[in-house]
Amino acid sequence: MAKIHTLGFPRIGKHRELKRALEAYWNQKIDKPAFTQQIEALEAQRFESFSHLDLVQVGDFSLYDHVLDTSFLFSNVPQRALQSRDSLDNYFRVARGKASINDCCAASASQMTKWFDTNYHYIVPEFNQDTVFSLNSDALLGKVRHARSQGFEVKPVIIGPLTYLYLGEVSDNTPVLDLLDKLLNEYKLLLNQLAKLGVSWVQIDEPALVTELSPQWQFAYKYAYEVLKHAQVKLLLTTYFGDLGDNYKLVCELPVAGIHVDLTRAQIDASALADRLLPEQVLSLGVIDGRNVWVSDLSELIEKLQALAQKKGDLLWLAPSCSLLHTPVDINTETNLPAQVKPWLAFAQQKLEELHTLKVALGPNPGAASAALLANKKAIEYKKRSALRSRPEVQASINAIEPSWYVRDKSFTQRYAQQADLINLPQFPTTTIGSFPQTPEIRKLRQQYKARAITLNEYEKGLEQHIAQCIAQQEEIGLDVLVHGEAERNDMVEYFASYLNGMLTTDFAWVQSYGSRCVKPPIIYGDISRKTSMTVKWIRFAQGLTAKPVKGMLTGPVTILNWSFVRDDQPRALTAKQIALAVREEVLELEANGTQIIQIDEAALREGLPLKRAQWTEYLSWAIDAFKLSAGGVKNETQIHTHMCYSQFNDILPDIQRMDADVITIETARSQMKLLDAFNDFKYANSIGPGVYDIHSPNIPSVKDIESLMKRAMDQLPSERLWVNPDCGLKTRAWPEVKSALENLVEAALALRQNQVSV
């Protein structure tokens, strides 16, 4: 009889209990014992979801990030963060620079970047030739003991040694694989400790195996697992997010007790894979999509799995494709979804229920699953027949697109000169990325309107007051290009989804992005078009309050796509083109209303890049075209900005150049301007705003720090094409720290201008 398990489960809780506990602790509203008590209650809530699982995972829960947890598990912690004996405080210093609001031992936070091709951010491990690993397993062992005491068959989850090294950054010239032997020694100790606790299986995650590995890395995998095969526990080697590609043969030959593969994103013949494995090896199949929210076609899966289930018996394990970290917790928290669409959806809890149905249907008493299978079949059939998915007018608009819609009339150099004459900005123009703090007052106003405690007119008047205050603050600070602050927006994607046909927003379908930061990805269920103006009245109102230019702020088509749960019945490229047309309409309306600068954020463009290079050309072709379609209709005098955060650009700079945005803003504060090396080597031709204020940390950058970063930027790029700005939006920060940081930013820009004049 097949077994069922999951690779991981959402950490945040049904009602974002993790977020609330973290922020209360950081703001010193609760002490450590109270914080610990809240976390224990949240972990107990998670275990309530695991009653049908044959093996319950331990180690996937994290207070901030599971990669950071691995760094602490092996004591690979930057020395600058080890300011006290309190490991929890040191942990948060690595993650965010401060352990609490009044932390006197603040440190530079470690870099943060995207977890493979997802919107989850991990804390990058730091390595050098002096790196020493030392096992610190008390916390993990304690969780194992606790779970076993409740009668669960426990399966600890750890990141594999090669993937951990693959994800890190080396600060010197040390080849990272030179650290492998030292790290393997600690892994052996850990596995032996788990064996002594009675653990039979350990899930060891190696998603790096779905990337393109060099022969050196492939050999390192063979070597590492030869070393680990002598452990007294069984290893389930876990891969996800894609096809094994050239690593298929390697994985099949590794000396592990079981292998997990992602069948939702990989073209793998499960039966052929079973034949390649030893008869005694477990084959775990990721048959439920762990990264989208559509119900699975269980009848189709049963048909595919039946013969394999009979052949492998209890050596066939069924699971989601990857950790359910990337999905909301429970569809039952949603009460306002359209009745036609809700049956099509499955969140994390429902995905575990789907697994249970599969197990029963493939077992000795399949009739016990008949009711669940019938309901599933009805949902699948209704979704296929539904007229909600298709809009003829959208298809007509797609067919009407002309090649000229993708390009600007003149080159960047010609455009930028015209824009400089019209907008009249100083050298090193200062601006922000778009959002300003979402204060308790703004959130209360939104909640009152949502609860119908105030009228639409009262709500909009309240928003106007907040926008006016935001403009006044920026005027006082002395910024050159202002923004309206986005008080009306709950999220940079969710807000736009509410103005687009073919997209749904939810009330409580939260997903963790990093730490305490959660988002509610919209759900794309049909053809997309713009219902009405989305931003124009707010930008027009803000511009009426100041003589300085106010940027129009939009989210780009690829980011809306990548940060949504996307329909699974048509190519993503077509969906992106539909969104691009909707954004284009808004861009042209902003321009017609006098907006001189329009920012179209594509924060997620790099994130969507396939993990296999062979697929890059296709993705970048339609993704860049979607951006160009959204921006290509404006006059030369209209300045187009875009923003990309926490991404590596080295390999796609020709495509970023092809976007032809007049100004691109990027994250460079945590990376100390290292990203600019690639832009300089490539000879990137357009203007850049390298971030000088790390907004994901409560630390306030000094004038000296900002000047130092900008001088490094000036060593790489012409000063006349440099802007000065934060790394990202300021939504999650508080006004006092924002004001101080931006005042320092403006003061640094003034000093840079003075230095340039004196030179």
UniProtKB/TrEMBL annotation:
Keyword list, A-Z: Amino-acid biosynthesis, Metal-binding, Methionine biosynthesis, Methyltransferase, Repeat, Transferase, Zinc
Signal peptide positions on this chain: none
Cofactor: binding comment: Binds 1 zinc ion per subunit.
Cobalamin-independent methionine synthase MetE C-terminal/archaeal domain residues: 428-749
HAMAP family the UniProt entry points to: Meth_synth
Protein role: Catalyzes the transfer of a methyl group from 5-methyltetrahydrofolate to homocysteine resulting in methionine formation.
Similarity-based family: Belongs to the vitamin-B12 independent methionine synthase family.
Name of protein: 5-methyltetrahydropteroyltriglutamate--homocysteine methyltransferase
Organism: Glaciecola siphonariae
Gene name, Swiss-Prot/TrEMBL: metE
